[in-house]
Amino acid sequence: MIKKSYHAFHEDVYIIKLKNGMQVHILPKEDPYYSTYVELSIPYGALDLTYRLGDQTFQTPYGTAHFLEHKVFAMPDGDAFAKFSKMGVDANAMTSYNQTSYLFMATEHVMEALDYLLKMIDTRYVTHDNVESEKSIIAEELKMYLDDPNVVMHNTLMEQLYVNHPIRFDIGGTLESIMTINETMLDHVYQSFYQPSNRLMVIAGKVNLQEIQQFFKAYDREHPEKAIKPQTLYPKEPTRVSVKYHVEKKPIGISKMMMGFKLKVKKLSPHDQIKREMAMAMMSQLLLGPSSMMFESLLREGLINQQFSMSANIEKGAESITLYAESNRIQTLKKRLITFLTEEGEQALVEDSFERYKKVFLGQFIYALNNIEHKAYLYGKYYHLKSNLFDVVDLLQEITLADIKMIYHELSTKNLSILIYKKA
Q: How far separated are the first and last CA of the chain, in Å rounded?
């Protein structure tokens, strides 16, 4: 067991490296923390559709990662959720664009739940019948999301922004794509991506270090195998957007608009990529965050409501800045935003505001680490990005106003796509 101390955060991290390549990172927290949070993450998500293993290339349908997440909970003796529930343990899972995570929170039966979580991950129970029965369950889940106009808008905007990149499609896939998933595909994906050397386990909160160390010594003896990691392949994506402008009439109470700026993906080091992601987020808030002058002006004029948002999105091979707005004067708002974001916005990017917001951003980031679930998630996220959660603050300190302005100059009508749902 390796111990690393981060004195600025009063944090110690204990690392166990297994012979099979799996790593366990432990972030102990004593009183007043009475619970233990465990998250096992795998860098395999909705974007990992095409992958190479050895000299062979494999193609999977949209939604395969999410489908496999569902099937991992299928065990020969029943549903794993029921087993966790009997232990009094709150278990869950989530699939993002870039990773799949299996997690639980417990105050008692922690080691029993930890053992069962690994048994669940290690047990491949995918059959023709349970895959076919799962299709209707996932289809209902997708239909539920498709009833939400905001989800539909987001998915449609991604289709307008991107020509080939798999981010065009929902994490859960489509009603058509999930029907083509079969047990052979899921079995191969499982064997390729779910192998121990591709796993990270983060344990945070109240822990017994000696008990955990003994547990993983035994686990390592039972699971010594180590395999080749697959390589995800992405299609070539042009810099142009797929659709510039689209308007639809909808039976809604107020007109809605989404705007997206498709940014050129840069080849950066892991640290520089994280800095870029944070700089994009800071720029979005400085320009049109709730405390910005432009936001207050648009709100005062009645051009937007409190639902307005602007966000930065960085995924593998896809970067964008997106905006969402509701307005009774949607065309007027559209013109104001385009002018501001492509011509006049640099005037809002001044040193005083930047330094003030940088302190706010830093404070929010550090405060969020008090939540052990959020801290464990971020720890895993930055680990898979080949960085370290506790290095992020230093990276944040390095961001300058010039970095923010450089990103602003990437916003152009040439890489802009607009989607409007007009009130019928």
A: 63
